[in-house]
Design brief:
This protein is an alpha/beta fold. Helix content is 19%, strand content 13%.
């Protein structure tokens, strides 16, 4: 029907005035699509075109576009020079700047060196002298070595590194360093009895030289219980009333805690052997070196009582027992034998020292069928040995090591070393034979 906008009646769709259909022979194939002269735009394209008529798009500069090939200018941060870019505006990759890490490493190295000046000095000495700075590991001895341990670069021992510069650094430590030889039947004793005797001797060595309480100045009750009656009486006399004829250090390694405090473990090197003693029984020979690392006690460096040697040798006490014989070793000390304190707080020092005690003693076990004795207790046949780094002519039942940081030349009238210089680590020669009439010697040691 006619409408306002279209008053004329419309022709039916798809018909010409002459009544024919113009699309009757139209084929919508690929050729028809390719030959189209007008193409419909996508809906999003028409929407964006309508929007951009009033609000043209703005390029944020985050990417390059075909419309604006000029690259965005790089931003400048923290007043640094802008990163270089190539012709397309891509930042060029810089090489790594190693200055900052190197500066940090250098600062840390300087701080560590400042905190450990002694270690830095020791390292410098070692590199100059060409000597090794650490000792090789050493197994327990099975026979006497052929030479002394090699020399090491001079180093300053500290609480953290008490064995620096010492051959004992590579020695075994603690009771495990005392190995027992194979037990065989000897004389009146069968193999099991000899094995028990060897273990008894080891127990005594451990109780008298490796017990931390004894080393720190305690009374060696466990070791005393292993001695036969006469030997025990003589040892107690050396503990309660020490003098040159009977001093506790002839059997026990003890340090006065006012002077020296043990640090860490004890390094041990040596050997044991068994020998028949004819009709009397069995002899067990021992030769061990015990090395103790020590830090200063609260009174380290102060004058010791009785530091002057006696005017003439005192006569030896009657030989009622082997343990009552004069101390049978050379006492070696460094040149400044007597020292005085040069620091207000001696115990606050971190530098340490070492004392080397060599004991080459012989133990006798009598045949119980011929002698009245307790076969499960210890008797002594001979004492040998020496001590490096202890005060000379001081018999008070303790060792008194010297600390270099508190040492000054001895005052007038004080004791000065006069004995030969020895290497306390040299075990290639037999332990010295004592001369009771001459008294203890006061010599020097080549190293400690």
């Amino acid at each position: 029907m006619p409408i306002v906008e279209d008053p004329d009646p419309r022709r039916s769709e798809g018909s010409d005035p002459d009544g024919s259909d113009p699309f009757e022979n139209l084929v919508l194939d690929e050729e028809f699509v390719k030959g189209a002269t007008v193409k419909e735009q996508a809906g999003r394209t028409r929407m964006l075109a309508a929007r951009w008529k009033d609000q043209p798009p703005v390029d944020p500069g985050a990417r390059r576009t075909v419309l604006d090939p000029t690259p965005a200018r790089p931003k400048r941060r923290l007043r640094r020079a802008p990163a270089p870019v190539d012709a397309w505006g891509t930042p060029r990759r810089r090489g790594r700047d190693l200055r900052a890490p190197l500066f940090v490493l250098l600062t840390v190295a300087v701080l560590l060196a400042a905190l450990n000046l002694d270690g830095l000095r020791d390292w410098y000495r070692g590199t100059r002298g060409g000597l090794p700075t650490s000792a090789p590991s050493v197994a327990p001895e099975t026979a006497r070595p052929g030479s002394a341990p090699p020399s090491l670069a001079a180093q300053t021992p500290t609480v953290d590194h008490p064995w620096a510069g010492s051959p004992a650094e590579g020695w075994p430590a603690g009771p495990g360093a005392i190995e027992l030889p194979p037990a065989q039947a000897v004389g009146a004793f069968d193999a099991d009895q000899v094995a028990a005797q060897l273990k008894l001797v080891k127990d005594f060595l451990v109780a008298s030289n490796l017990d931390p309480a004894v080393i720190a100045g305690g009374r060696p009750e466990t070791a005393l219980d292993l001695l036969d009656r006469e030997e025990r009486d003589a040892a107690v006399r050396g503990l309660d009333h020490p003098d040159r004829a009977a001093d506790a250090t002839s059997l026990f390694s003890r340090f006065d805690p006012r002077d020296a405090i043990p640090v860490g473990d004890v390094r041990v090197l040596g050997r044991m052997s068994v020998e028949g003693d004819g009709e009397r029984g069995v002899l067990i020979h021992t030769d061990f070196s015990f090395v103790y690392a020590l830090r200063p006690g609260p009174e380290a460096g102060r004058p010791l009582p009785g530091s002057k040697p006696p005017a003439s040798p005192r006569p030896a006490a009657p030989e009622t027992s082997a343990a009552a014989k004069p101390v049978a070793w050379t006492i070696a000390a460094k040149p400044a034998a007597w020292t005085i304190a040069v620091a207000e707080e001696a115990g606050g020092s971190t530098r340490t020292t070492r004392t080397v005690v060599r004991r080459a003693d012989t133990y006798r076990f009598y045949d119980p069928a011929r002698y009245r004795n307790n076969p499960k207790k210890i008797n002594f046949a001979e004492f040998r040995g020496d001590v490096a780094n202890t005060a000379c002519h001081v018999q008070d039942g303790f060792y008194h090591p010297q600390f270099e940081q508190f040492a000054v030349p001895a005052p007038p009238g004080g004791q000065t070393p006069h004995g030969p210089a020895t290497d306390p680590y040299d075990r290639s020669t037999p332990a010295p034979v004592p001369d009771p009439s001459a008294g203890p010697e006061c010599g020097t040691v080549s190293r400690s």
